[in-house]
Amino acid sequence: MGRKDRIAEPWGTRTPYGPGETWPVRVDTHLADGVTPDEVDRWVRSASLLHSNGDAMDIAVKDGRIVGVRGRADDRVNHGRLGPKDLFGWQANASADRLTRPLIRQDGRLVACDWDTAMSRITGRTQELLDEQGPSAIGFYTTGQLFAEEYYTLGVIARGGIGTNHVDGNTRLCTATAAAALKESFGCDGQPGSYTDIDHADVIALFGHNMAETQSVLWSRILDRLAGPRPPAVICVDPRMTPVARAATVHLAPLPGTNVALMNGLLHEILANGWIDRDYIDAHVVGFEELSRRVGEYPPERTAEICGVPAAQIREAARVLGGARRLLSTVLQGFYQSHQATAAAVQVNNLHLVRGMLGEPGCGVLQMNGQPTAQNTRECGADGDLPGFRNWANDAHVEELARLWNVDPLQIPHYGPPTHAMQMMRYVEDGSIRMLWVSGTNPAVSLPELRRTRALLSQDRLFLVVQDIFLTETAQLADVVLPAATWGEKTGTFTNADRTVHLSEKAVEPPGEARPDLDIFLDYARRLDLCDKDGEPLVKWDDPESAFEAWKECSRGRPCDYTGITYAKLRERGGIQWPCDDEHPDGTERLYTGGAFLSDPSYCESYGRDLITGAPLEPAEYRAMNPSGKAVVKAAAYVPPHEKPSRDHPFALTTGRTLFHFHTRTKTARAPQLQAAAPEVWVECSARDAAARELAEGDLVEVTTPRGSVRARLRVSGIRDGVLFLPFHYGYWDTDTGYEPGDHGRAANELTLTDWDPASKQPIFKTAAAALRRVEADPRPSAAPTNTASAPVTGDLAPTRGGPDAQADEELTRPLEADAR
Ligand SMILES: Nc1nc2c(c(=O)[nH]1)N[C@H]1C(S)=C(S)[C@@H](COP(=O)(O)OP(=O)(O)OC[C@H]3O[C@@H](n4cnc5c(=O)[nH]c(N)nc54)[C@H](O)[C@@H]3O)O[C@H]1N2
Ligand SMILES: Nc1nc2c(c(=O)[nH]1)N[C@H]1C(S)=C(S)[C@@H](COP(=O)(O)OP(=O)(O)OC[C@H]3O[C@@H](n4cnc5c(=O)[nH]c(N)nc54)[C@H](O)[C@@H]3O)O[C@H]1N2
Ligand SMILES: [Mo]
Question: Which of 188, 250, 318, 465 fits as disulfide partner to 269, beta carbons 3.0 to 4.6 Å?
């Protein structure tokens, strides 16, 4: 048993292993000060809700309170390990400022009330709007952080009961491109790969994915391979010197927004050198000829010019990718939050298709999720998809749903694609959506262009319901605020980025009158008296397990088949990967083995879209292109970002995350170790750019785009020249100052633009043109972490440490090979 400061050493002790071996177990535990493991009353099964990795853990309960967490040794995902957010984030649950009672707006102010008053106000307004305007007046904007049971219930209520097409999640901001790219290439959502591919791969490529900070336990798995015999080569594509870049064999640092050109350049080399699997292509792929033609236009020199990356590096990366025997690729926001998001992400799928590397150990693509339960939002139809990966443009699929719910098919809107979140906000702005129910997301900080977002959410004519656990920036604008119970206080299932389903059980009572999101949705359905064709209640379940059973029926026969999973099995076995049915009772590790795709026209989830315009393909077009259910290779030309650096705004601004915070920090700012590690906003620029402007580490600077400005202190980091980076975690909420959306805000989204990828509709958070100027010199360094992508490159700064409160135990169940050697 060892102890480590897990703020100073986020990835913990190395447990090296070799190709094809099993990742060793290391059980991480953190308990509140003074509590020992034998004083814990109960350990309650759960998994992490602070990222998409699905780290399995037990929640320690003592005297009815959460007192810590311990990784689960027997779970396929983490083999006992936990990351810093897992270890310390649970403390937010017991924060004194949790919402404990519903609030309603009265004479302009939010005042506490009882549940009956709050819910009557919501159902009253719903009924009025249905009578006046019909279902299109009502929108639901949910999240990637509730449970499957809750999304499915919300999906049934919104689509089958209210009958509105305006249902989406913040998953639009997060994983819409993952879903879109999978649909384009494979006809259907669902990750081909598995985390165990890390155990087998000889090359691992991370495209716009800072895994070290955003799936830190998965990164530990890679670090352990890198520390073991015959380590894999790592390719990193990221404009910043992230921990991934530092560990990489080849680091390509393209200008933000040039991913499609880069991918075309890499594919150019792979095709030109014949590093392809011709037999696989002939048997399983359509569209190869067009790809060949298209990437022919991107020789290394031209690509180098567009991306600002040396041609030799492009050749070197292509050689590594082309020489891989077992290639694992991961893709995330550096690709997804871009103007050509789907086009870029699809090229990664293409890389695997032309190399015939899918469905075998070590050969996988992870079009990653970000949020812990985003996969479920997509599966259950609480976003712009129909439940069970059904195709809105296929009448037979809609009829199947209607039969299942016992409603008329016409009740389920499918006249066009489900409305995406950015369009919903436009409807709110225009006044055609008049009631918006926001659950588990904080759009007043996380949507782009905050000045506009605030204005549209605070309109008098909008009836805004916010269901959260804190009085967030968004809740402050609401007409009704509903206090939710969260992780640890309610039961349900969720699915991580490699299709692993976990059960998370209730460990403690929620504070005050807070209620599980499921109970709130069920209450709404009952009060509205939503019925099926026979006058029976539309929603026929009343607790998590019965909701899960209903969802299982909806998933039957679909790619995400859950019918072989039960709560009992999840308790007994831990994480299980879908599809899990009679045929695959233990779940399924990899999809698409042997080129068996799910893209048949009658079965597929989507007929795809034009990658440049986003126009949906007609069923007949799809049938003509892909009559026999193969994988689709789709080519795309590079299009420059809409807002490019100019004389007035010479920098490319990109935004993203740091290891220690989660999103708008409602949880991590309330966990002292995490908050102390990254207490305030900063902005990163390169040493050369700083020198050219005579700026120094720690100076107070202002970053300006045509939409606003942010003040932050400067971190001179390893970011590429010409690029600025802002973490987006810092809203205008502050424990000291209250809610003050100032002119000189600190939220990155004061600066971002209202624009999105044409195919996935995911908004663009990673490219904008910005100016930078000094407001005030400051001899102190900025407070940015030093052991992450924001590591300083100037001066001798005090390293990020957690101190005595940040110690966690590590239990290694077998001797380290490194020690044995
Ligand atoms: N610590 C932490 N972990 C998290 C979260 C969190 O808030 N904090 N959130 C979770 C969620 S919801 C998500 S979606 C994931 C996100 O996980 P990631 O996608 O890994 O995180 P980001 O920091 O948004 O972006 C990743 C990288 O993209 C790079 N990048 C920016 N522009 C470009 C570009 O044009 N091209 C390329 N190739 N790269 C570019 C950035 O430099 C950044 O390092 O993390 C999940 N895990
Ligand atoms: N500039 C910029 N903007 C971005 C991004 C970026 O990289 N750059 N990334 C985007 C991405 S990928 C994402 S995922 C979004 C995230 O953006 P948000 O979803 O807005 O961020 P969170 O802070 O996670 O908000 C979740 C809310 O749910 C509440 N909550 C937590 N648990 C529960 C629960 O059990 N029930 C209920 N009802 N509420 C709960 C939390 O208190 C919090 O207010 O931000 C997006 N915005
Ligand atoms: Mo996300």
Answer: 318
Alpha-carbon span 217 to 486, nearest angstrom: 23
Q: What is the 3-state secondary structure (H, E, C) of 560-583?
A: CCCCCCCHHHHHHHCCEECCCCCC
pLDDT band (50, 70, 90) for residue 734: low
What are the two backbone dihedrals, phi and then psi, of residue 816, each rounded to the nearest 5 degrees? -65, 135
User: By the 8 A CB rule, do 506 and 518 touch?
Assistant: no
- What domains sit in the chain, N to C, each tagged with a CATH number? 2-96 (2.20.25.90), 103-174+373-593 (3.40.50.740), 176-368+598-632 (3.40.228.10), 651-790 (2.40.40.20)
Between the CA of residue 634 and those of 322, 607, 731, 776, what are the distances in Å? 19, 13, 39, 50
Strands 56-62 and 65-71: antiparallel
Q: Which residues contact 733 (CB under 8 A, 6 or more apart)?
A: 445, 472, 473, 664, 739
Chain centroid, CA 402 distance in Å: 30
pLDDT band for 416, please (50, 70, 90 cuts). confident
pLDDT tens digit string along 616-674? 999 999 999 999 999 999 999 999 999 999 999 999 999 999 999 999 999 999 999 99
639 touches 260 (CB < 8 A): yes
- Nearest Cα to Cα of residue 181 among 807, 780, 761: 761
In this structure, the number of other CB atoms found within 10 A of the CB of residue 602 comes to 11
Whose Cα sits closest to atom 24 in ligand 1?
A: 656
The residue whose two tokens read 């005090």 is: 798
Tell me the CA–centroid distance for residue 614 and ligand 3, in Å: 22
Asked whether the beta carbons of 180 and 342 are under 8 A apart, the reply is yes
Q: Which residue in the block uniquely carries the two structure tokens 């209520």?
A: 157
Positive or negative, the CA dihedral 800, 804, 806, 807 is: positive
Strand, coil or helix: 402? helix
| Ligand 1 atom showing the smallest separation from residue 257 Cα | 35
Which of the listed residues 447, 766, 790 should we mutate to test ligand 1's pocket, taking the one with most ligand atoms within 8 A of CB?
766
Of 703, 705, 689, which Cα lies nearest the Cα of 646? Answer: 705
| Token pair in block for residue 284 | 């399983």
The beta-strand segments (E) located in 469-539 are 480-483, 492-495, 500-504
Quick: pLDDT tens for 393-415: 999 999 999 999 999 999 999 98
